[in-house]
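Deliverable D4.2, example record:
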Amino acid sequence: MIGKIRRKIIGMAGCNSGNATLLVALGAPVLIGGAGIGVDLAQWYMWKRELQFAVDQAAVAGAWAMAIDDTQNVYVTRAQQEFEANLSATEDFSAAPVVQLANYAGGVANSVVVTASASRELPFSSFITGSAASITAYAQASFDAGTTFTSCLIAIDDDEDGAITIGGNASLTAGCGMAALSTDANSVRANGNPTVSAGWILSAGGVDDWFKNNTDDTILENLSGLFDPFENLSPPNPVESQVNREYSCSSTSGTTTANVSTTSTMTYAYFRGSNTNNATYYTYGAPKQNSTSTSNATGQIVSNNTQEGTTSSTSVAWTHVSGNGQNRIWERRSTTINTTYSNVATTGGTDAGSVLPGTYSDIFIRCDSSFAPGVYIIDGGGVDITSQHEVTGNNIMFVLKNGAYMKIRGGSRISLTAIQASDLIARGVPAEQASKLAGMLVFEDRESEGTSKNDINGNAQTVLNGTLYFPSSNVTFSGTARVTSQCLMIAANTITLQGTTDMSTFCPANSQEDTIVGNIGARVRLVA
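Output generated by the structure prediction step:
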């Protein structure tokens, strides 16, 4: 019996007809588990991808809201709305996102962070773990608010090397900014050993490394939002400015008019004697009657020294009317004329050095001169202030045409203030255009041939209030100028500051240059 059992066992040990069944039985749990895990992992991956995309979009939406002043207080709502709009498969079981501000790259509260999670039971993993599957997603988006820039120096050439050049021992410490529209790698150059504290330096191209190494200015290069703030303006041409004139240091007489009232009174008396010297009063039998006459004239031309008031004059005439010898009868006629002048006014004429609006070939200052309010068109020549003279002008604008230039040099005492909108409107310039031209002291017609003659080399007694605009020409600034009532802005094709330039302010106290020369839009980046 025992032997039979032994033989049976040995026979079974040598049989292999059930191996496949055994292997399938042993591998079935692994196969089923792998399939279950695969299905669950695919589901997790789909949830994770959707949730990550939702928080990414939410962070970007929140950052854009923070980058714009008007929407900063709703950045959480914007982020939540964008999160919900990008959910589909996880919409029913994802938790509300957490949206908050965070610091990024050394900034303070300059990014939006969004975190979210979703949790749900899956058939296989939940059977194994006894709990629901959970996924989380995180996103961070940084933002830079949009910025506008002003400047008191702007070079508008689009590709010039050294469009703004500061050289020699020039000192520019005004802190009101400078900008170059040139895309050249060195659109803003230093040449020498200047002192510069401009506040900010903006360039559509590059900025000389000297500024980076020798100033604390904010330097922004390769900007795409810089522009000429005056490129859409045209110079005014009022009727009074179309009158051809010549500058002169000689005076001219005007025309004086007045309302004139004249009263003439004639009085008669008679005398008897051989001559008028020994004649005595006599009662004549046929005397003439006394008479009075009056005349009035309005706007009558009178002498230039006429004063308002009344003047009086009397004249006497003797006439022999009858008799001979000692019996001669003499008639004495007395005429009294009273003249009253009122509304005396003088028009036209100028004092020495008085300059009226009009068109000039050039204005070469040769004496103390005063510019009357208005627009001065300089056609082909220049405004040249070079001697020891006092030159003043309020509410004026110089328009330079056909290569005309502006030159200020020497020790002149200069005070020039730009025209205002009200003065332009009074001269027929439309109100909208007048408001844009207000504050323009010099306006070079952009059709004018460019020139290098524009040289501003003033001194401590040079006061320039307003904008100097030379879109076709270079301006060399090599002196000192002051401002009293308006900011000074120099906008030119190219600008050179050199020599003894010493500018510490471009604006009067408690004011600043507000002409925008660049707009840099808000920026948002997904950083995590």
